Amino acid sequence: MIALALHGGAGAKAGRDYTTEIEHMAEVAAQARAALRVGAAALDVVTDVVAALEASGLYVAGKGASPNAAGHYELDAALMTGHDQQCGAVAALMDYPSPVRVARAVMERTPHVLLAGDGASLFAAEQGFEAVSDPDHYFTRAGRFESNHPPGTLAHGTVGCVCLDAQGRLAAATSTAGVFGKLPGRVGDTPLIGAGTWADANAAVSCTGQGEYFIRVNAAAQVAFRHATGEALSAASDAVLARIAGMGGEGGLIAVNARGEVCVPFRSQGMKRAWFSGDGEIVSEAF
Ligand code: ASP
């Protein structure tokens, strides 16, 4: 059994046309399905899917990132495997185009889980990752495109992927520029293991939304823990999002379990997302 879900953020706004993103997500999901069918590992698939979403410039992550209040691009990312609970993350990383690949290097090449700020950039340089030479030229798309929002509203965007591979392994990855107009140094839920990104033997979860709320309920891990106690994956996901909504927050998540069940709920105007389970159709939607 293989299954996968990806998201391009719960910041989708009613009335906007996301045809390009919907087609792109379907294409990325199709490539991932082809890889999974020939035995690709869940960790490689979530890394490659999130890297492809980052590189597209269509979502508020990687090339599509939005700047912080000081005009700088500080990016967050994390990934985690379910079968052995390995994880890696970067927070407030500047100048590197694929935060998820740097997060993977943190996981595989250091004894640490999370590197932040200058230390994360230094690590990326030492590991040979190519830096963005001209941020003004590189960061061109979604961040500025979508940034017409009322001040103080925590408008946001993110990308993520969760996956079950043919060997029964689960993995999750998430990457973001965070919320629009964030203060320098602000870190959201995305790179915090358990809050925005989580995988264990039962479920893999990637969140999107106003990270401040997702942190306060440790959202991604909560979904997996509730599911592990017998609650259906969709009921567990809905319960966590309802709690966030009850606190005044908005967002959504994608989750897959070890049986290949997928759910993609959101409590926001929309959430760009695509998914499939087994040999089922790939569905790609924004609302
Ligand atoms: N959760 C992300 C953050 O707060 C933003 C998003 O998902 O749109 O940094």
Question: Which helices and strands, and how do they pair?
Answer:
Elements lengths: L2 E5 L11 H19 L4 H15 L18 E7 L5 E7 L5 H11 L4 E3 H10 L8 H4 L3 H4 L10 E9 L5 E10 L17 E3 L3 E7 L1 H6 L2 H10 L4 H14 L4 E7 L4 E2 L2 E2 L5 E5 L5 E3 L2
Parallel strand pairs: 3-4
Antiparallel strand pairs: 1-5, 1-12, 2-3, 2-6, 5-6, 7-8, 8-9, 9-10, 9-11, 12-13
Helix pairs in contact: 1-2, 2-3, 8-9
This protein binds aspartic acid.
Aspartic acid binds next to strand 5, strand 6 and strand 8.
| Number of discrete helical segments | 9
Low-confidence stretches: none
Order of strands in the sheet with most strands: 4-3-2-6-5-1-12-13
State the major sheet: 8 strands, mixed
Helix-strand makeup class: alpha+beta
Strand runs, count: 13
Radius of gyration equals 17 Å
Number of domains: 1
CATH C-level class: Alpha Beta
Distance, first to last CA:
27 Å
Per DSSP, what share of the residues sits in E-state strands of 2 or more residues? 15-25%
- Arithmetic mean of pLDDT: 93
And the CATH topology?
Answer: Glutamine Phosphoribosylpyrophosphate, subunit 1, domain 1
Q: What would you note in describing this structure?
A:
The protein has helices spanning 19-37, 42-56, 99-109, 117-126, 135-138, 142-145, 211-216, 219-228, 233-246, and strands at residues 3-7, 75-81, 87-93, 114-116, 156-164, 170-179, 197-199, 203-209, 251-257, 262-263, 266-267, 273-277, 283-285. It is an alpha+beta fold. It has a single domain (3-148, 155-269), classed as Glutamine Phosphoribosylpyrophosphate, subunit 1, domain 1, CATH 3.60.20. β5 and β6 form a beta hairpin. The longest helix has 19 residues, at 19-37. The two termini are 27 Å apart. The relative contact order is 0.20. The model has no long low-confidence stretch (mean pLDDT 93). The site of aspartic acid has 17 residues, from β5, β6 and β8.
